TrEMBL record:
The lineage of its organism: Bacteria, Bacillati, Bacillota, Bacilli, Bacillales. This is PAS domain S-box-containing protein/diguanylate cyclase (GGDEF) domain-containing protein. NCBIfam families: GGDEF, sensory_box. Residues 625-878 form the EAL domain. Keywords: Membrane, Transmembrane, Transmembrane helix. InterPro entries: Biofilm_reg_signaling, EAL_dom, EAL_sf, GGDEF_dom, Nucleotide_cyclase, PAC, PAS, PAS-like_dom_sf. Residues 329-376 form the PAS domain. The chain crosses the membrane at residues 9-27, 33-55, 67-86, 106-124, 136-155, 167-190, 202-224, 236-258, 270-290, 296-317, 414-436. Residues 483-616 form the GGDEF domain. PROSITE patterns: EAL, GGDEF, PAS.
Length: 882
């Protein structure tokens, strides 16, 4: 692409200048349009050149040194463009002969000024003092020679002409002198720059400067002899020069191969060395052959010889300094070679070792005397072809990187990373450098990293990435073999509460314990992974049907429902499990995981501690959940919440002694929703605070009404969520509600979870005492599923412990009975009331009574009912159940 742009620009310049000359040679100079055309061609040429250089400036914006250079060069061509516009104003608009000097000459001077500024800043930026002196002498020689010739042929006639005014003479001399200075500084930059593509651009600029100098000299010669007229043959040369300078920017963008660059550098260096001598010899030869009497020629000749001699002295001093630097460089190279932390070698073109460092001897476990002269591939028992193949490529100038294996004397495997670098002298490959790095530890670390990339660092189980990859592969295998598989998502209820209460260290131990239990359940061929947090996934391979999955799930539920014992605490965290089954249909890994996730969510929303298979329609449940979340904000305002009440029974006489207030949401589209559908969302969005306050107010209002109906000893129990309890406004809110409703606080029982009670124990004690000072009683809900410490429990200002339904459901299991018996005994010792929830059968009733627990609630006695129904029940039976 760049090459095509380069060729197109060059073709444009050639055609453009030829067209310019055609107009001059064959146009009628009496026609005004010809003059206008000539001026327009000069202006357009200057504009194109300015745009080319400005584009080069933008492409070099990240290279400050070159960017400044091209910007100043573009300002120079812009100045030339302005000068041409002024010239056209004189010649084509005002129809007068352009005076000399004129306003246009000011901008021609600016052109030269910006050119000189660009090259001067570029040349002197970062140059060493000694190099500057050497270049100055080289340029001085050329400058003396060219100045002498310039004076002899052009300037002498102008200076000695008495008719020329001072300003005319100043402007007239400024052009050739400026051209000379510009020529010299461009030469200096060409000799000093390293970038080959940039150097080619500079040579094109130099060509433009030479053409411009010739045009300037010709112009002044014609002016002095009153021979210049518009549409002169020298006019296109000015445009040609400025277009070449613009073209230099395009040329500088070209990439150059190493061989081309090296060849070009050699030519430039040869020119740099010989040009001062050639120019001095040319001057002396002219003096001898044509004019031995001219004073200025003679002075110039002697001065050029003197400068050549001084230059030789500088070169000798410079060479001595270079020899010193060369010796130092050799020592540095040898020091770097010998003390390099990696093994370093050099090979000749036959592949024989010519030099090695101590590190290479150490890797090979052999002395250098035995290694020098050997062929490298002979030192390796394996990978010989690989070593030789890369060596041959390096001989062609290509860098190579590869790995080989080396067996040490103990037959241990050593992994070596090899870098081959071609060794160049004068642009020709003469050998190969080799760097050998022992990467054995790196290999081991890479394997560790690979392990960590596919394993969970905490539990040692596979992670999500590995699980998803394995699932993809297993689906492919299942399609081939016709076997089934199951994806299982497991989320543990109440984990966050436990983690927040006991700390992350305890949470980590719990996750490890869960992982161990899961690992003990699954078959060897199955895959278990931790997704993150308290979510785990299972991949059951080669399962035939749902029955086989159910057997595994039943065993899993039993294992995961056993209490966990961590840091002196005993607690339960139950699983909510979702299952998606693949039997050769069109499911993908993503869809299977999504279905398992939906099924898990279904388990969580429908009571937790269960497993559910994915069924069509669960997506709608998920969509409903989003609908719930968006509508929850308006539920209180729209009076959509209602309270249901479940009787609490004194089983010895079947008397209703209390009611637990349970919130329900009468959703306008989804119907009556239990708290499991929205309480979690309410907690996450902080809406639990206004909802909780509404529940408390409604419960107290209903309690006051029932007391007024004559049921004066009836207790109202209200659940307090974790966020409610953590609120600094809780105590004041309870106080205000009691005052507003007129409910007797002695009959208000606030239920908090065990985890909430144990979180920040000192603050909890203070808050519970404040509540009790109001007259409110406190109950620990779901006691035994959390992580109570007995020493703390004795300090908590409590009134009641509540046995959770999880324990009641498993009455008859020996270990479970022992836990319930312990809770009852503990409550009696601490002089606390005890109540069991979730009682659904007469056997459970009798078992609890035998253990000494008589207060109960559950479906056996009655489901939660509306306030109207509970009033009717109480009035009908006078607080007694039949």
């Amino acid at each position: 692409m760049k090459k095509r742009k380069h060729q197109s620009a060059l073709a444009f310049i050639i055609i453009y200048i030829l067209f310019y000359y055609l107009i001059i040679l064959f146009g009628n100079h009496e026609v005004r349009l010809i003059k206008i055309s000539g001026n327009l061609l000069s202006i357009i040429g200057a504009l194109v050149s300015t745009l080319w250089i400005y584009q080069t400036y933008k492409s070099r914006i990240n290279n400050q040194k070159e960017a400044v250079f091209w910007l100043q060069l573009s300002l120079g061509t812009l100045s030339y463009l302005i000068a041409e516009l002024i010239w056209m104003n004189y010649e084509s608009y005002r129809l007068i002969e352009v005076p000399f000097p004129s306003y246009a000459d000011i901008f021609y001077m600016f052109q030269m000024f910006f050119y000189l500024l660009a090259f001067s800043i570029y040349y002197f930026n970062g140059k060493q003092f000694f190099k500057i002196i050497q270049f100055i002498f080289e340029i001085l020689i050329i400058m003396v020679v060219l100045s002498t010739f310039s004076y002899y042929f052009i300037l002498e006639q102008m200076i000695t002409d008495p008719t020329l005014t001072g300003f005319f003479l100043f402007i007239s001399l400024s052009y050739p002198i400026g051209d000379l200075f510009l020529f010299f500084i461009v030469l200096a930059v060409i000799f000093g720059v390293n970038g080959i593509a940039f150097k080619k651009g500079l040579i094109i600029i130099l060509s433009g400067i030479v053409i411009q100098s010739f045009a300037d000299s010709s112009f002044f010669y014609l002016i002095l002899n009153d021979m210049y007229h518009a549409e002169s043959l020298i006019d296109p040369l000015f445009t040609f020069a400025v277009l070449l300078i613009g073209y230099s920017g395009i040329s500088a963008e070209q990439t150059v191969s190493f061989q081309t660059a090296f060849s070009f550098s050699k030519k430039i260096n040869a020119l740099k060395i010989s040009f001062p001598y050639i120019s001095s010899l040319a001057l002396i030869s002219y003096i001898i052959l044509f004019d031995r009497e001219h004073t200025v020629l003679t002075i110039g000749g002697f001065l050029s010889i003197f400068l050549v001699m001084l230059r030789q002295v500088i070169i000798i001093l410079n060479n001595r300094q270079l020899l010193t630097h060369l010796n130092e460089s050799k020592q540095r190279y040898q020091s770097l070679f010998d003390n390099h932390p990696d093994a370093v070698i050099s090979l000749n073109l036959d592949g024989q070792l010519t030099s090695i460092n101590n590190k290479f001897c150490k890797i090979m476990d052999t002395s250098s005397n035995l290694l020098i002269g050997q062929h490298l591939e002979n030192l390796f028992s394996v990978d010989r072809d690989l070593i030789n193949r890369h060596f041959l490529k390096t001989k062609k100038g290509l860098h190579q990187n590869f790995e080989v294996i080396l067996k040490d004397k103990l037959r241990e495997t050593i992994y070596i990373h090899v870098t081959y670098i071609p060794m160049y002298i004068d642009g020709t490959v003469v050998g190969v450098f080799g760097v050998f790095k022992d990467i054995t530890e790196l290999k081991k670390n890479t394997e560790k990293i690979h392990y960590l990339a596919y394993h969970d660092s905490l539990t040692g189980l596979h992670n999500r990435a590995f699980f998803e990859d394995s699932l993809e592969k297993e689906i492919v295998d299942s399609k081939k073999n016709g076997s089934g598989l199951a994806v299982i998502f497991i989320d543990f209820d109440r984990f966050k509460m436990i983690n927040d209460s006991l700390g992350h260290d305890a949470g980590d131990q719990l996750l490890k314990a869960i992982a161990d239990r899961l690992f003990s359940i699954v078959r060897k061929k199955d895959i278990i992974a931790r997704q993150g947090g308290d979510e785990f996934t299972l991949l059951l391979k080669n399962v035939k049907n749902h029955k086989e999955i159910i057997q595994i799930m039943d065993e899993m539920m039993l294992t995961l429902n056993d209490p966990y014992h961590i840091k002196g605490h005993s607690f339960l965290t139950t699983p909510s499990i979702g299952i998606s089954f693949y039997s050769g249909d069109h499911d993908t890994a993503v869809s299977l995981m999504k279905k398992a996730d939906l099924a898990m969510y279904f388990s969580k929303m429908n009571g937790k501690n269960q497993y559910s298979f994915y069924q069509i329609g669960m997506e709608q449940d998920s969509a409903n959940q989003l609908l719930i979340e968006s509508a929850l904000h308006h539920a209180i305002k729209n009076e959509e919440f209602v309270l249901y009440y479940q009787p609490q029974i004194e089983s010895s006489n079947h008397k209703i002694y209390g009611l637990e207030a349970l919130v329900r949401w009468n959703h306008p589209h989804l119907g009556m929703l239990g708290p499991g559908h929205f309480i979690t969302i309410a907690e996450e969005t902080n809406l639990i605070l206004p909802i909780g306050e509404w529940v408390l107010r409604q419960a107290c209002t209903q309690g006051k009404k029932l007391h007024d109906l004559g049921f004066e000893d009836l207790t109202i129990s209200v659940n307090i969520s974790p966020k409610q309890f953590q609120s600094p406004k809780l105590v004041q809110m309870v106080r205000d509600v009691i005052k507003e409703t007129g409910f007797n606080s002695e009959f208000l029982l606030l239920e908090i979870t065990e985890a909430v009670a144990m979180n920040h124990i000192n603050k909890t004690i203070d808050k519970l005492k404040e509540l009790q000072q109001i007259g409110v009683r406190i109950s620990i809900d779901d006691f035994g599923t959390g992580h109570s410490s007995l020493s703390y429990l004795s300090n908590l200002p409590l009134n009641e412990l509540k046995i959770p339904r999880e324990f009641v459901n498993h009455l008859g299991v020996e270990t479970n009975n022992a836990i319930i018996d312990t809770i009852i005994t503990l409550a009696k010792n601490l002089k606390l009331d005890i109540i069991a929830e979730g009682v659904e059968t007469s056997n459970q009733l009798l078992s609890l009574q035998k253990m000494g627990c008589y207060r109960m609630q559950g479906y056996y006695f009655g489901k939660p009912v509306s306030s109207k129904e509970i009033e009717e029940l109480l009035l009908k039976n006078d607080c007694f159940l039949e």
